Amino acid sequence: MKPSNTNRNAGQDEEWNGWAAAAQQGDKRAYAALLKGIAPFIRGMITGGLANADWADDIVQEVLISVHKSLHTWSPDRPFRPWLAAIASFRKADFLRRHYGARGDRKISLDDADFSALPVTDPAHAGELKDIEDALASLPDKQRKVFELMKIKGYSASEVASEMGMTVTAVKVSAHRAAAKLKEALG
Amino acid sequence: MSNTNMDAFIDNLAEGLTPCKRLAHPLRRALPWVILALVYTAGAAQFIGLRPDLAQKFADPVFLFETGLMLAVSLSAFMASCWLCVPDMRGAKWIVATPVTMLAVFVFWTVLRLYAEGFEIPALQWDHCLSDGALMGFVPAAAVIFLGRAGATTRPCMMALMNVAAAGALGYIGLRFTCALDTAAHSALYHLLPFVVMGAVLGAGARRVFRW
Predict the structure, then answer these.
(1) Does A85 share its domain with A131?
(2) Which of A137, B49, B79, B123 has the largest CB neighbor count within 10 A?
(3) How close A140 comes to chain B (CA, Å)?
(4) How far is B11 from chain A (nearest CA, A)?
């Protein structure tokens, strides 16, 4: 008969408790066994909800380092699993906070295959970029500036209007004409 | 990271293992520091000078209720701080509810008193209460922050709140023993506000202060 999840967890908890208690006494082999035993549990716990599966490795490492630093706070009269789960949740939240706080989700590695294949980054498309630059250069100065401010830099029509000393309607008409000319020039 | 790399990483960690001294039970850790903080606050109040009508005040139910409530807030926040040192709080996450609830009762009570006494804010000036409060709150605050840093909290902001509640409530009691002005507005502005500001500062830097 197969052991149930509860029985398996109870056996695992007992094993982890024993290893952790021995690790606190300085037993390196028990400690290595403990870390190797808990790594898959941590991975399983933190992987759900991650936007990038590669982050799981970083978070597992951070959790293991945290376990190393805070092993003295675990008490053998308490189960090891909730103690570990609290650290794993904390480190996952911490990692995501730092990642999104540093706008890591908006950064792209130069080694990223998808990024390298984009028309603007792929050298094979370098000529197309030059065509766009030439088409832009062929526009009248005022129209080009309006188009750059609105369509490339992302300013609103009213912001461009006040910057250029034009009416909002004139800015919109100018941007529309510039787009039409570019479309015609680029085919 | 491949399995081989993870194994090497784990082996490195295991190689650096040294025997560690277990953190004592939170109650045992808290007790000496609570006694030290109480003795210090009593000594500081004596040093600053007790209010002349203190003996009569011990017969005043409002005074007894307020100081008793804040003593309970301080002790329970001290305890909660020690439980927060353990990542899973030893399964007693409810423990922070005790000081938070009592603090809420105190704030509600203060608002009631302000309503009854009138919301007249005392003139802003550098009152002796600010410096006395700083003197009385400093050592308990340092003690409880030191206790917190020795652990590994997974709730740094809650830890900061509990630390400030523990030290601030003790400082408040000390000030009630030394300052003869009992109005709610004076207590709120000069006795409690400095600790609220301290709490905001500590809360903002909690992740750094309690980083591990």
Answers:
(1) no
(2) B79
(3) 52
(4) 6
Residues in A touching B208 (Cβ below 8 Å): none
Contacts of A57 in chain B (CB under 8 A): 1, 6
A111 part of a folded domain:
no
How many domains, chain A?
Answer: 2
Q: Do the chains contact at A86 and B17, CB–CB below 8 Å?
A: no
Q: How far is A37 from chain B (nearest CA, A)?
A: 11
CB A9 within 8 A of CB A44: no
In a domain, A115, yes or no: no
In terms of residue numbers, what domain contains A150? Answer: 125-186
| Minimal Cβ distance to A68: which of B13, B21, B25 | B13
Which stretch of DSSP H or E encloses residue A134? Answer: helix A126-137
| pLDDT tens digits along B5-23 | 888 899 989 988 999 899 9
Q: Has residue A118 been placed in a domain?
A: no
pLDDT tens column, A123-136: 676 667 678 888 88
**Token match 């959790």: residue?**
A63
Q: What is the CATH number of the domain that holds A63?
A: 1.10.1740.10
Q: What is the pTM assigned to this prediction?
A: 0.74
Instruction: Give Cβ neighbours of residue B141 (< 8 Å, ≥ 6 apart).
Output: B163, B164, B166, B167, B198
**Exposure class string for A126-152: b at 16+ Cβ within 10 A, else e:** eeeeeeeeebbeebeeebbbbbbbbee
CATH number at residue A168: 1.10.10.10
Please name the member of A26, A61, A75 whose beta carbon is closest to the beta carbon of B18.
Answer: A26
